[in-house]
Amino acid sequence: MTTQRVLVTGSSGFIAGYVVDELLRRGYEVVGVDNHSKYGRVSKSYEHHPAYRLVEGDARDSAHLSDILSGCDHFIAGAALIGGISYFHSFQYDLLATNERITASTCDAAIRAFEDARLQKVTYLSSSMVFESADRWPSFEGQERKIKPPLSSYGFQKLAVEYFAHAAHDQYGLPYTIVRPFNCVGVGEMRAKSEVEVRSGNVKLAMSHVVPDLVQKIVKGQDPLHIIGDGSQVRHYTYGGDLAHGIVTAMEHPRALNDDFNLSTEQETTVLELAERIWRRLRPGTPFHYVCDEPFEHDVQRRVPSVRKAKELLGFEATTTLDQILDEVVPWVVEAIDHDLI
User: For 153, which of 12, 21, 96, 100 could close a Cys bridge (C-beta 3.0–4.6 Å)?
Assistant: First the structure.
């Protein structure tokens, strides 16, 4: 039996790094495409794997993607301009314009490859931010079309990705699966080259995501710890390895065809609870004190997914607990800080 080949755009990125590992573990050949615009060139554990090939290129180059896709069975569309919450408020136009160009190029190339008969499906990485305007929880698949559209340009663009997937299927028959990762936490999140510095109390952060930012502030001795907003924001922090398992399962599962899935842990945690857990790991025996800073405009108060559909149709569950995640990620972040990577 011929080994199936998967194209992953944005393959050197954060979530995609876990996805490539999962694909290789399952025996796929993987072609990665990345232009290294976010982090620069980074070393990945799989870069010398015999079944992995990296092509340096821009996902906006549709002709180039078409050439690569001609030899692929699956396409995981992961390339995007993406970052933590500071991205939403610093690159409003770029998040919309750049990502729309990436998405259109992705679909153009995939439509051509599908018409040539080898490509089976595109698996699109959307986001929990499509539910930004939700007023009822948990957010279920289909709710994104019943509520008001997202207010942030990032959330709006991620919703547009889903519309691209539906439209390419409706007009050209291009098969798809949409996956929505919720609050990925893992190793490999570094300072982006274009990251805007934001002051949080006495510490300047190149804002990425909440776990590395909290670790950085605590390691640098901030006391009381500065929390963005009042800390009551609810999140479902999901391990990158679990998300990769869900994404690849959705890619290959027959019941995922032309459907969409929330991928998330069921464990609900507030930002304040997360901050205190990290504090206890890094400063045991020291009383936990915190102060609240002004929240960002688009700091969603609740991101609570329904995970029932993924469990029932795909058999997928995110099983890694928050404590297990922090046991792995916090030491990695501390080491990254020591090497000035964060």
Answer: 96
